[in-house]
Design goal:
single chain; alpha/beta; six-stranded mixed beta sheet; globular
Length: 260
């Protein structure tokens, strides 16, 4: 019997007050694949990512990690599932009062009580080298560049050797050269660590480089799903405008048909 997908989202719905943000969202991310979620601001991308981490509970629907529903989990059971995931935050979210080495070691210090301080430091240094950084261990986040902060954030995310990596706008604020280097690093994590990745991004160049499949979130739904070539060649007017900016004026509004 084949193993279940790493991530399974089924009919996920979430509202805040009268605002329906996610509407029956469903998709699967196979093991070892990189899926990019694209869409405009306020379309629910970050809300979707928070559900995968179970920071939010859906109004209805289900989220499964390795086939296990996480919607009803709490306490130790939820912690065990979260240990399978590493999160790379949009602004890196490093602790200003800690050195880069301490930032990378933070999760190990909190969750791997079986490791000695020497072992934790060794692993943290190893992850820093893996993301291509040298001589930053003793530096504080304020002393390194934005691109380096992104790499330290990735090193921290992989320190516990997760099966799944979640990225929230990993190339935001970076120039094209640095953004490309982060893309290469994401591809390296996939090739060397065999992780499954879910990437929230509005950077289409990045999505085309790293994605096995791209999902377009619009008006709270998965409006389009396809491989990068299909997204590039789409004739769908809403996606076409988002990807290519080929029409003027606001993105057209889809009027949904309802049964009589």
């Amino acid at each position: 019997m084949s193993s279940p997908p790493a991530i399974t989202i089924s009919n996920l719905t979430k509202s805040f007050g009268n605002q329906e943000v996610l509407r029956n969202v469903s998709f699967e991310v196979p093991r070892g694949q990189t899926y990019c979620i694209i869409g405009g601001s306020g379309q629910g991308k970050s809300v979707l990512l928070k559900h995968v981490m179970r920071l939010l509970v859906p109004d209805s629907g289900d989220i499964r990690i390795d086939g296990e529903s996480i919607v009803g989990l709490s306490g130790t059971s939820l912690d065990d599932v979260r240990k399978k995931m590493g999160m790379v935050f949009q602004e890196s979210a490093l602790f200003d009062s800690m050195t880069c080495l301490e930032n990378v070691a933070f999760g190990l210090t909190m969750h791997r009580r079986d490791l000695s301080a020497v072992e934790i430091e060794r692993i943290a240094r190893e992850k820093i080298r893996l993301v291509g950084l040298n001589r930053v261990e003793k530096k504080y986040p304020s002393e390194i560049s934005g691109g380096m902060k992104k790499r330290v954030g990735i090193a921290r995310a992989i320190a516990l050797e997760p099966e799944i990596l979640l990225y929230d706008e990993p190339t935001t604020g970076l120039d094209p050269v640095l953004a490309s280097s982060i893309d290469e690093l994401i591809l390296k994590m996939k090739a060397e660590l065999h992780v499954t990745s879910l990437v929230i991004t509005h950077d289409m160049n990045s999505a085309f480089r790293i994605a096995d499949r791209i999902l377009f979130l619009y008006q709270g739904k998965i409006h389009f799903s396809g491989i990068p070539r299909e997204v590039r060649e789409t004739e769908d007017p809403v996606l076409r405008q988002f990807v290519r900016g080929e029409t003027s004026g606001p993105i057209p509004v889809i009027v949904e048909e309802t049964a009589p």
